Each structure stands twice: as structure tokens, then as C-alpha cells.
């Protein structure tokens, strides 16, 4: 069309000998109408607002919307023009340049768009410049990428026609002084965990186009596949439209699988679709043809990267120079991100990869360079992530994770022994990020690659190390049986090799044996194992040493050896600080908080837990944040700040469920059960206890089961089941897995239960508990927790029916301080039976049936501070 207009203008000029426009006065413009909308325009609200704002700025007269083919540049330009039309007195004109071969044809296409009559002997470009000199017009120049050599003429147009503004669409930047670039990416896409992907711009476009070909298309029924399609094409509008056409015959999940497998899948059979938009292959072929040979060679090599790359990596892996990267960015084949990285649209990467595969030798060389580069990159993060620069190392690995995983898998396939350079770094990374399932899967993949190798010392040493790291993730995922199996195999390798484990953070099997002993309630054994690990891991292995001291401290605390626990924990903290291991230091703060609780110093405990939370927040570590929140919630509950405690527990539970930390979930459910029981919501408390106890029983973690029994005893007391409560307390007070605090608490509550039962019934219940197996007892109790509850007793009166005596007031104060009946008896020079009698009278006067409720009720009535 542009060539025809140019010829027509030359013919008229040859016969008439006239100039194109009058010498003075403003021409009467008859611009062609803008192309009509064939389909709805979806999204791009922010882009429209920004472009309109720029167009109306006096110093911005040339905007280039730059993006890859199919990104919706033309549609956005047209919508912008329609919205901004009122700002231009002489209107808006649209010139399509897809077939214009040179500057003359460019001028001719503009002439056609604005209604400029081409007459006389003057050149077409000069006639157009003269024609536009006095108008106030917005001129859209669509598909300019193949006319870059004509770019300087646009500068001349802007000079000659000060009232004209240009809105250009191009796959490549014009590189003119007057140019304001507007890079265009895809539409907003749903995140991988988005539960309503249909709310995003990309999904909205897909849904509209899908319903054009299949009116009954349901986005809710196709949510998973819909989100996957949007992410695979990165919101590229043309790709979404091509994909949507397939819903006639395929589900969204099947469409996504085809896209991931083959770029050629994205085609259309619409008869009126432009040739260049009939497939993504055709779109990208056009961009490829615009590249120089060097640019093509580098572009296809860049397909080896995943998730973007830095300039240094592009140079070493693909041989890309900065000018070539810049040229590919200008051509909209790369995006330069604000963080200094380059990114390659996944569909473009597939296209480039297909070209790279056409040269097998170059493809193999590039892939090997990529693997070696990222293996070295990851190996360099070992020392920082163990201590000294942990946050920086985590950020560095996160940025390159997609490339690192590709390099890991290539290494597992071609050189499995090389995984020994990086496996522990990845273990610590995934642990810090609380991505336990991913970490376990990656290590198991490496383990399967190494197992078939000949049984050399190097192979067995790597297997031993991998198995310890795998045991670490089994611990995180509450899988003690698998944890023990991995440790047993690892220890066999180390025994045969007669070498110590390598340095690192938690690389010694003794450490995880110690943690297993802690969880099983074997505290003396755990302390012995911790000390053995201290002896084996000298100060040049600080990552192991800090954890070894921590295990000793935890074991000592659960034996109520407070001073010894304090010394151990101080050693652990000092070692972590010296090593720069701020992540493990957070664990030390938590343990110091527990020690403060044992000393009944709740203010110090809160400070320690808050310090731990702050450290874990630095790392964005949900597991660590959840742990600290749980401890803070327990302090709030102890101080009867019920609303605060519930809020903290629920925040912690959300973190823990999100990362699949079952051990934490068990602890939090116990806390929520205690809390809701304390405020009288027994049905909800029973449900919390039942859910948590089922999880604890599934893992056979003895200590947690005993903790639950102690908590559930209070629930049984409040729901009028005092005999079973006494049995539960007696079992928890004498179980081998019971730590000192749990044993003490169970005994205190057992003393209180004596006041609610006849002596003979009480003795029988206690004897039953002493002989009971905690697991069997807990299994029996689970169904009881969710049975319908009896009608609750009437609410307690607003005031005491009968005032407390001075002696009862003294007993109440000591109960609030956490004293056992025996300790109260010693303090007040009474017998235990007398204390039980006073406690019984207290409960009757306060209308309660437990110590917790007695304290809470007394505070409500102002009897306690």
C-alpha cells in the first residue's frame, strides 16, 4: 500500500508540476480512521496511564513501545491513542509499516495515514515534512524495527513539525536522541501458589479468547492448567491467544504440556490472522532475520541459561560481549532488569535453543561451559553460607537458583562425583530457606546418581556426606525412621573409611543422633552424643561445634540441670558468633529463652525470643520465625494475654503449615489446645489436641506424646473426666521420655487431681497411669477428644460468693507463682493433704476446677496482680 501511494504521488507530480500543499496556511487533514477493535482490550491499565502521561509532557514527543513480537505493542499504542486523542487538536493518525522497505516508503505510508496529497516534483519525504509543519497531531508508526536506518528522518520530522508527536512500536529501539523508550513485557501472571489465577490480566485475556471458541469454558475447573499456561508464556498476549484456541480439543493442563514440549504448538488456523501472527514460530523468525550473524550466534547460546543471567556469566558461558548484549536488548530479545541481570522470555529461549540444537558441537560446548561456571559459582558460596556472609550467600544462590539446578542435574548426569563440591552448600541453603522437600528431592537425586559408581573411597565419602544431609531433611520433615536409616548407612561408610566427617554446618552424624535422642526423650544419651561431637569437631569445624554445644545445652535443660545448660548454651552462642553463623545463633537465643523460663525470668525469655525472631526475619526464614512466635505466644498465654497469644500461635501455624514443618505444627496445635482450654472453649481445644496428637503418634516421637498427655489431662479435668485425667498425669509424670519440666507439671496437676476424686478412685487411676504405655494411652485418648461434650456448667458469678481466707489467699499466690503442692506445703509449713484441702476450697469459691483457671479467675476478680 505504501509503495502504491508513493508511485501515485510521483505520477501526479510529473503531470501537474505543483507543490504538495499551499505555501501558507494550515492543511485540512483527513487522516484515515484508526483500525477498529476486533476483540476486547484486556489489562494494561498502568501502561495506558503511564503512556498518556508521557505523551502529554511537553519534552516527550517520540515514544517507542519496545517489545518482542506478540507482546501487544500495536494494541497498546492504539488504545493509548484513543485515550489521548482529545489532547491533539488535529487528531490521531495510524501508519502501518510492516511492508515499507525504506525511508521513502515510510514517508509514503505516513502521507497515506494523514491524508497528505502527494503532488509536484518534490520528494515524498519533503512533501510530508512540509505538510505536517503546522499541524498538532499524534502519529502512530507501527512495526518500525526493519526501518532503523530511516530513524534520522524521524528527527527531521520532529524538527520540521513541532506540533507532531510520534508513538512508535518496534521490536528494536530506534536509538535516537529524542527517543523515550517504553519496554513492554507480558501481562501480569499468577504466582505458582495463586489460588485464583483467573484474577490476573494474563488469565483474563486467555479466558475471554477461550470462551470465544468454547462458550462453556470454566476457568475455575481449569485453574491449575490455566495458571501454568500463563507462566509458561510469561503473559505474552499473542501466545495466550494462540494457546486459548486449543481449548476446543484440549484441557489447559494438556495445552501447558504441549507448550513446554514444543514452541511450534502455538499456531492458529484463523483465516484472517496476519501471516506474521499465525504462529509464535513465525513471530520469532521475523526477529531472528533482523539479527546479524554474530547476534544470532550469541542469542542461540544464551538459551542455555535458566531464569536469567549476569553479564559476567554471559561472557564466560556464551562469549557474549557487552555490545552484543546491548544489541539483543535493543532488539527486544533480552530484557535488562533493575537488579543488573538479563532475562530471556521462556518462549524466546525455546526458539533460541532450537537453533542451538542445530549445531550439536556448539550446543555441547555451551552446556559444558554453563555447568562448570555455575558449579564453581556455587562452590564459592560454601564458606559464606556456613558463616560470615550468610544472607549474601543465600541471596546470591537464590538469584541464580534456576541456573544452579540446571548445572546440578547436568553434573549428576555427566560427573556425579563433582556434586561433592556443592551438595552441602545446597543443603544449608535449602535449610535456611525452609524448603525442605525441595532440598530432600535434590539430594536424593544426587544420591541416585552417585550410587552406581564404583565403590572407591571418593565415592563412599560422598555417599556418607550426602546421607547425613539427607537425614537433616528427614528430621525437618518429621520422618525419624528414614532419618535413622540414612544415619546408619552414613556411619557405616565413615567407619569403613576411618575418616571424620567433613567440615560444615551439621555434617557429623553424631549431631543428628543426638537430636534423635532428644526427640525420643533420652536426654542423658543426647548429652553424651553432644559431648562426643564436641570432642570430634575441633574449633576449625565451628559449624558442627556450635550445634554440638547446643545439643548438650538442650539435653541438660530437659534434665533440669540449669547451670550446666546455661554453660553449654553460652559456648554454642559464642562459637556461632565467632563463626559469623547468625542463622544458628537464633537457635541459641531460643535456648537461652528456655533457660530463662526455667528460672521464671519471663522478661529475659521474651527478649531472647524476640532476638531470635529478628535474626530469622533477616533471612526470611519461616521455620525460625514460626519457632520464635510459638515461644512468644506461650509467654503471652502464661501472662493470660489470650488474644495476643492466639494471634501469635496462628501466625506461627500459618508459617509452619506453608513449609510442611510437622514438628512445629504439633507443638503449635498443643499450644492452641492449651490456650482454648484455658479460656473455656473445650470443643475447639479437643479438636486441636486430637489433630496434634495424631501427628505426634504417627512419628513415634515419645517426648511430644508425653507433652500432649500433660496438656490433655487439663482438658479431661475441665470436661468432667477426673479419673482419666489422673491416669494421664501419672503416666506423664513417670514416663522415661518425660523431660523435667513436663514431669514436674504433670506431678503438680496430679496433686491437684487428688482433690477431685475419692481416695480409692484416685489411687486406682494413678496406678493405672504408672503402668501405662504412653503411646497406647495416647492412642486410646484420641477419639475421646472429639466426642460431644456434656452441657457446660453455669458461668461463674461476677463476684465471690464467699471471700477467701488469708491462708487460701497465700496458697493462691503460690499457685500463681507455679509452686507444686509439695513446695507450697514446705513454704507454708503445712502437710500436702492440708494444701490439697485449701486448693479444693479455692476451686469451689472461684467456681473452677484447675490451677490455670484458678489463676485466670482470680485475676479477673482482682485477687492477683
What does this structure look like?
The model is unreliable at 1-24 (pLDDT under 50). The termini are far apart. The longest helix has 20 residues, at 360-379. With 865 residues, the chain is mainly alpha-helical. The strands form 2 sheets. It has a 5-stranded parallel β-sheet, with helices on both faces. The protein has a 3-stranded antiparallel β-sheet with strand order 6-8-7. 63% of the residues lie in helices and 4% in strands. The chain contains 42 helices and 8 strands.
List the helices and strands and how they pair.
Elements: H1 2-16, H2 45-55, E1 62-66, H3 73-84, E2 92-96, H4 103-114, H5 124-131, E3 137-142, H6 151-160, E4 164-170, E5 179-183, H7 201-213, H8 223-232, H9 237-244, H10 252-261, H11 280-289, H12 293-301, E6 309-310, H13 311-318, H14 322-330, E7 335-336, E8 341-343, H15 346-357, H16 360-379, H17 382-386, H18 390-399, H19 401-414, H20 423-432, H21 436-450, H22 457-476, H23 480-497, H24 509-519, H25 523-536, H26 542-558, H27 562-579, H28 582-598, H29 602-618, H30 622-638, H31 642-659, H32 662-678, H33 682-699, H34 702-718, H35 722-734, H36 740-753, H37 759-770, H38 774-781, H39 806-816, H40 821-828, H41 832-846, H42 851-860
Parallel strand pairs: 1-4, 1-5, 2-3, 3-4
Antiparallel strand pairs: 6-8, 7-8
Helix pairs in contact: 1-4, 2-3, 5-6, 7-9, 8-10, 12-14, 12-15, 13-16, 16-19, 19-21, 20-21, 20-22, 21-22, 22-23, 23-24, 24-25, 24-26, 25-26, 26-27, 26-28, 27-28, 28-29, 29-30, 30-31, 30-32, 31-32, 32-33, 32-34, 33-34, 33-38, 34-35, 34-36, 35-36, 35-37, 39-41, 40-41
Amino acid at each position: 500500500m505504501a509503495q502504491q501511494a508513493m508511485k501515485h504521488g510521483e505520477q501526479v507530480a510529473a503531470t501537474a508540476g505543483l507543490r504538495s500543499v499551499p505555501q501558507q496556511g494550515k492543511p485540512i487533514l483527513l487522516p484515515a480512521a484508526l483500525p477498529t477493535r476486533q476483540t476486547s482490550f484486556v489489562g494494561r491499565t498502568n501502561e495506558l496511564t503511564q503512556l498518556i502521561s508521557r505523551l502529554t509532557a511537553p519534552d516527550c514527543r517520540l515514544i517507542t513501545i519496545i517489545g518482542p513480537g506478540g507482546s501487544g505493542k500495536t494494541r497498546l499504542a492504539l488504545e493509548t491513542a484513543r485515550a489521548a486523542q482529545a489532547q491533539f487538536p488535529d487528531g490521531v493518525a495510524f501508519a502501518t509499516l510492516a511492508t515499507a522497505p525504506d525511508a521513502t516508503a515510510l514517508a509514503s505510508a505516513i502521507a497515506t495515514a494523514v491524508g497528505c496529497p502527494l503532488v509536484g516534483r518534490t520528494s515524498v519525504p519533503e512533501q510530508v515534512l512540509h505538510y505536517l509543519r503546522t499541524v498538532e497531531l499524534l502519529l502512530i508508526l507501527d512495526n518500525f524495527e526493519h526501518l532503523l536506518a530511516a530513524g534520522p528522518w524521524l528527527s527531521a520530522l520532529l524538527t520540521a513539525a513541532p506540533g507532531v508527536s510520534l508513538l512508535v512500536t518496534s521490536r528494536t529501539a530506534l536509538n535516537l536522541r529524542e527517543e523515550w523508550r517504553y519496554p513492554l513485557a507480558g501481562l501480569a501472571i499468577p504466582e505458582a501458589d495463586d489460588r485464583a489465577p483467573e484474577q490476573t490480566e494474563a488469565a483474563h485475556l486467555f479466558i475471554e479468547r477461550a470462551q470465544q471458541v468454547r462458550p462453556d469454558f470454566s476457568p475455575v475447573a481449569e485453574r491449575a492448567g490455566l495458571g501454568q499456561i500463563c507462566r509458561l508464556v510469561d503473559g505474552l498476549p499473542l501466545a495466550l491467544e494462540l494457546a486459548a484456541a486449543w481449548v476446543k480439543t484440549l484441557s489447559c493442563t494438556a495445552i501447558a504440556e504441549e507448550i513446554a514440549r514444543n514452541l511450534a504448538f502455538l499456531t492458529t488456523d484463523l483465516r484472517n490472522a496476519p501471516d506474521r501472527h499465525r504462529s509464535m514460530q513465525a513471530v520469532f523468525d521475523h526477529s531472528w532475520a533482523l539479527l546479524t550473524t554474530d547476534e544470532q550466534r550469541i542469542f542461540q547460546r544464551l538459551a542455555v541459561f535458566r531464569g536469567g543471567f549476569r553479564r559476567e556469566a554471559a561472557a564466560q558461558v556464551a562469549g557474549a560481549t557487552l555490545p552484543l548484549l546491548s544489541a539483543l536488548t535493543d532488539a527486544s530479545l533480552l530484557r535488562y532488569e533493575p537488579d543488573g541481570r538479563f532475562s530471556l522470555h521462556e518462549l524466546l529461549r525455546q526458539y533460541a535453543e532450537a537453533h542451538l540444537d542445530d549445531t550439536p558441537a556448539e550446543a555441547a560446548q555451551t552446556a559444558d561451559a554453563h555447568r562448570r561456571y555455575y558449579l564453581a559459582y556455587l562452590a564459592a558460596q560454601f564458606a559464606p553460607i556456613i558463616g560470615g556472609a550468610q544472607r549474601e550467600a543465600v541471596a546470591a544462590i537464590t538469584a541464580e537458583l534456576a541456573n544452579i539446578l540446571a548445572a546440578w542435574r547436568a553434573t549428576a548426569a555427566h560427573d556425579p562425583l563433582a556434586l561433592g563440591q556443592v551438595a552441602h552448600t545446597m543443603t544449608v541453603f535449602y535449610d535456611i530457606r525452609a524448603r525442605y522437600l525441595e532440598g530432600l528431592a535434590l539430594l536424593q537425586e544426587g544420591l541416585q546418581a552417585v550410587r552406581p559408581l564404583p565403590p572407591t573411597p571418593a565415592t563412599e565419602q560422598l555417599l556418607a556426606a550426602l546421607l547425613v544431609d539427607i537425614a537433616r531433611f528427614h528430621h525437618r520433615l518429621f520422618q525419624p525412621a528414614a532419618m535413622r536409616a540414612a544415619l546408619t548407612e552414613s556411619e557405616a561408610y565413615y567407619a569403613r573409611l576411618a575418616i571424620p566427617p567433613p567440615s560444615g554446618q551439621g555434617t557429623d552424624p553424631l549431631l543428628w543422633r543426638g537430636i534423635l535422642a532428644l526427640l525420643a526423650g533420652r536426654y542423658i544419651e543426647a548429652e553424651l552424643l553432644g559431648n562426643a561431637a564436641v570432642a570430634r569437631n575441633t574449633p576449625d569445624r565451628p559449624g558442627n561445634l556450635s550445634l554440638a554445644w547446643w545439643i548438650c545445652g538442650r539435653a541438660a535443660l530437659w534434665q533440669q540441670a540449669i547451670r550446666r545448660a546455661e554453660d553449654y548454651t553460652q559456648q554454642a552462642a559464642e562459637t556461632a558468633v565467632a563463626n559469623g553463623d547468625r542463622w544458628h545463633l537464633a537457635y541459641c537465643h531460643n535456648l537461652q529463652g528456655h533457660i530463662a523460663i526455667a528460672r521464671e525470668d519471663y522478661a529475659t525469655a521474651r527478649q531472647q525470643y524476640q532476638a531470635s525472631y529478628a535474626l530469622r526475619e533477616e533471612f526470611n526464614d519461616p521455620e525460625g520465625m514460626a519457632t520464635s512466635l510459638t515461644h512468644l505466644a506461650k509467654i503471652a498465654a502464661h501472662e493470660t494475654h489470650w488474644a495476643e497469644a492466639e494471634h501469635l500461635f496462628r501466625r506461627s501455624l500459618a508459617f509452619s503449615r506453608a513449609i510442611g514443618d510437622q514438628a512445629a505444627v504439633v507443638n503449635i496445635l498443643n499450644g492452641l489446645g492449651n490456650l482454648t482450654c484455658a479460656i473455656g472453649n473445650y470443643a475447639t481445644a479437643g479438636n486441636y489436641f486430637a489433630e496434634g496428637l495424631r501427628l505426634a503418634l504417627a512419628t513415634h516421637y515419645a517426648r511430644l506424646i508425653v507433652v500432649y498427655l500433660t496438656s490433655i489431662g487439663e482438658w479431661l479435668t475441665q470436661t468432667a473426666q477426673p479419673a482419666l485425667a489422673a491416669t494421664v498425669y501419672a503416666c506423664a509424670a513417670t514416663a522415661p521420655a518425660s523431660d523435667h519440666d513436663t514431669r514436674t507439671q504433670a506431678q503438680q496437676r496430679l496433686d491437684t487431681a487428688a482433690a477431685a476424686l475419692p481416695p480409692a478412685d484416685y489411687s486406682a487411676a494413678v496406678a493405672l497411669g504408672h503402668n501405662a504405655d504412653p503411646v497406647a494411652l495416647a492412642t486410646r485418648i484420641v477419639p475421646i477428644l472429639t466426642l460431644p461434650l456434656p452441657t457446660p456448667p453455669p458461668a461463674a458469678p461476677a463476684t465471690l460468693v464467699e471471700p477467701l481466707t488469708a491462708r487460701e489467699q497465700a496458697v493462691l499466690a503460690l499457685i500463681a507463682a507455679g509452686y507444686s503442692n509439695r513446695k507450697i506445703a514446705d513454704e507454708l509449713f503445712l502437710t500436702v493433704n492440708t494444701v490439697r484441702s485449701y486448693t479444693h476450697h479455692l476451686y469451689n469459691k472461684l467456681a473452677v476446677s484447675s490451677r490455670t483457671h484458678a489463676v485466670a479467675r482470680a485475676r479477673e476478680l482482682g485477687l492477683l496482680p
